[in-house]
Hints:
This protein is mainly alpha-helical. Helices cover 76% and strands 0% of the residues.
Amino acid sequence: MRRLSTFVAPYAIFMVILVILPLVIMAQYAVFDKEGQFTLHFLLSFTNEEILNTFIYSIGVAMETTILCILLGYPIAYILSRKEMGFPAHLITFFILPMGVNMLLNTFALVAVLDVLHIPLGTTALVIGMVYNFLPFMVQPLYNSLCKIDSNLIEAAYDLGASKITAFFKIVVPVSIPGIVSGVMMVFMPTISTFAISELLTMNKVKLFGSVVQASIGSDMLNYGAALSIVMLLVVVITQVLLKDR
Length: 246
């Protein structure tokens, strides 16, 4: 037990200093004004029509991005996870390699590509950029889940008369649900909170919820920025609660 405590201590210190303490400070800014008086004014700013509309729009973009990432990422992960299809195991590295590159660099490169393709910067470019940046975060957990499928289960389903489509939806999809849930969490929430991608791909014409938070903090309106961040945190927690048992 003492050895265990020794190993746990550094992680506990890390959690307190870099996770819990910043959250406490953020909550303090959200519910106390500059005079130290308790107030809900900053939290209620979320009900502002412009902010609320931005939040709803961000949810829509996040949902669209997540759905497209699933539709594109699932076939990629499935094909690469099936050894019988003859693809080398290390090929998955090329699909998740962009995760190791800064998103700003990826987005700058995408801006140049869109310019060559004569695709104007705007909402369409924003969705393309979101999918381009977050697709690897969907492919990796899906690939990990699909690799765990015992091929003997699929063969047994075929022997019992199941078609390929039936075996896919009865065996493959249910086993891959944890990967889908992980992928949704890794794509949906960052899409709402990002701001740099939307600024670069829409020339600052389209604002996501993360842009509002960043603008508040950049304008020295820390209380409003902290309050909106708390709202975002609550959305993350609710989403995790809804998906944890899936």
